[in-house]
Amino acid sequence: VIISSAQRQAKHSFFWQFVFHAYTTAFTLVNGNGTPKAEKHSLQQKQILLGLGAISYSACVGALPLIFVNRYTLKSSVMQLIVRKLLPAPLFGFTSAFNVAMVRSPEFDNGIEVMDRNGKVVGVSKKAGEKAVMETAVSRAVLFGTTFFLPEVLMYCVQRARFVKKPHALGPVRMFVVMSVLAGMLPVSLSMFPQCGEINRADLEPEILSSTEETEFFYNRGI
């Protein structure tokens, strides 16, 4: 996160964002729901291919503003502010959510297990899978979007108030601020939605409802 947010050259930015998204995509792949088991080998191949595509796409999208600025030599202060300060946060939030949706797409294609309040599996629901993936994508977008946005605001305040007198000390201060924001946002993003998600009876497929009289159902959201 720290290295990705500090790049000023397009090639370096692409490389480090590729590394960043490769890690988060692998984490998503390991910590999904895991219900889809049909044709397990082909399923894993599909997820890996989707993950590689999502990583490459996200790295390109993240580096695109720098490519645009360098290609057309846009050196105005407004363009520099937009590209280096304002764009990274929404881009990282969007690409992080996009990676989750792509890698875990088999969950809303094939569905995930839903359980009653006693933990008994009552069926496999695509709607629950879609809800689980979307909740995780939102939490991931908030985590990394905030982590890339809030340090820029805090560093602006630090520089404006001249709390740091020596310019070469700004680097370590920035690193500390990014680490602090990331550490603070991690539990916030994980607690946005419960790990054991809940879905109402009215939101489930008819074939599941026909086998039980329960009104509330639960599922594993993943991380």
From TrEMBL:
InterPro entries: Mtc. Pfam families: SFXNs. It comes from the Eukaryota. The chain crosses the membrane at residues 48-69, 81-101, 137-158, 170-193. Keywords: Amino-acid transport, Membrane, Mitochondrion, Transmembrane, Transmembrane helix, Transport. It is found in: Mitochondrion membrane. Its main location: mitochondrion. GO terms for cellular component: mitochondrial inner membrane. Belongs to the sideroflexin family. This is SFXN4 protein. The lineage of its organism: Eukaryota, Metazoa, Chordata, Craniata, Vertebrata. The gene is Sfxn4.
